[in-house]
TrEMBL record:
Transmembrane segments: 9-29
Similarity-based family: Belongs to the YjiK family.
Keyword Transmembrane helix part of the UniProt annotation: yes
Protein name: Uncharacterized protein YjiK
Subcellular location: Cell membrane
A cellular component term, taken from the record's GO annotations: plasma membrane
Species this chain originates from: Neolewinella xylanilytica
UniProt xrefs under InterPro entries: 6-blade_b-propeller_TolB-like, YjiK/CarP
């Protein structure tokens, strides 16, 4: 009787079965990770002011922004600053048309993941936690950024950043390892503060999203929902934190006590890999996603809804 290695057809069948089994397991995990319900308002007193079933606008970006990885608001209405994760370029973009209005070179080709603005000061976040800082001038197309080192490293894989006007700090979210991981908070994904007065960062998170609490909301069972923050922004109307995770395509709203107020599961056809979000001063929301099925990065615009009166 011939050994199995002398029967190539049988080997091919075995390999095919293994591949199908792995694929089936992945599909099963994906299905189980994503329930049918896509919107969960946890706080009965909270009104979630956006309808993701009716996006106001989805604008395709230039080819240079296929790998768009961060957003922050510009100086004018419907203008945003965007970065991509390979080149040291800052893009000023018309969010309505997706047109690039200006490009500013600020640094070498590195792994950039997020961008924040305080006044004319721009802070670009690198995956290792370094901040690249410069003062924006619309008359310049090339500026040399200064580098500020933080407590993070590549082990943390930092992706989200925004400016918090309430505390004059930058909020930074690591996608992977926390700064001070422990068994007591192993399910918490921390949000850390970098103080712009002292230019120092706290080694403990100021806010967090708890994966176990998130799973209890989404699944209704004592089960974690995988959450790896890729973007963060502050609602200028409520001062709540909107935290985005491209893993799981989920948007979570938390208050300043880290209590979850709302969970929104994003449609994967539009938001293939969402990594950037920002608010306009009047509270409209912009979300960017990397290359979509249409072949370009996109920015989706959601106009803020007015809360219905209790009589309606």
């Amino acid at each position: 009787m011939n050994g199995i290695w002398e029967r190539p057809n049988l080997i091919s069948v075995i390999i095919l079965v293994i591949v199908l089994a792995i694929g089936g397991a992945y599909v099963a995990f994906t299905v189980s990770q994503r329930p049918e319900t896509e919107s969960f308002t946890v706080d009965d007193d909270y009104f979630f002011p956006f309808n993701f079933d009716r996006l106001d606008r989805v604008s395709r970006l230039a080819n240079e922004l296929d790998e768009v990885s961060g957003l922050c608001m510009g100086f004018n209405e419907d203008e945003v600053f965007a970065i991509q994760d390979e080149e040291g370029l800052l893009f000023l973009v018309d969010a309505i048309t997706g047109t690039t209005l200006q490009t500013v070179k600020y640094g070498d080709n590195l792994d950039y993941e997020g961008v924040a603005r305080k006044g004319n000061d721009i802070y670009v976040l690198e995956a290792d936690g370094d901040l690249h800082y410069f003062t924006y001038q619309d008359s310049l197309t090339e500026i040399t950024a200064q580098k500020i080192e933080t407590l993070f490293s590549y082990r943390n894989d930092t992706e989200g950043i925004c400016y918090d006007s309430l505390t004059n700090t930058l909020l930074i979210t690591p996608k992977e390892q926390q700064l001070s991981p422990s068994e007591d908070n192993s399910t918490r994904r921390g949000i850390y503060t970098f103080d712009l007065e002292t230019m120092e960062m706290l080694d403990q998170p100021s806010y967090f999203v708890d994966e176990l609490e998130l799973g209890q909301i989404v699944f209704g069972t004592n089960r974690e929902y995988v959450f790896k923050p890729s973007g963060i922004a502050i609602d200028p109307i409520t001062q709540d934190l909107f935290v985005l995770s491209s893993v799981g395509n989920v948007l979570v709203v938390i208050d300043r006590d880290s209590e979850i107020k709302h969970v929104e599961l994003l449609e994967t056809g539009t938001f293939r890999q969402p990594e950037g979000l920002t608010f306009s001063p009047n509270g409209d929301l912009y979300i960017s996603s990397e290359e979509s099925s249409a072949g370009n990065g996109i920015i989706a615009t959601l106009t803020r809804l007015t809360q219905p009166s209790r009589d309606e």
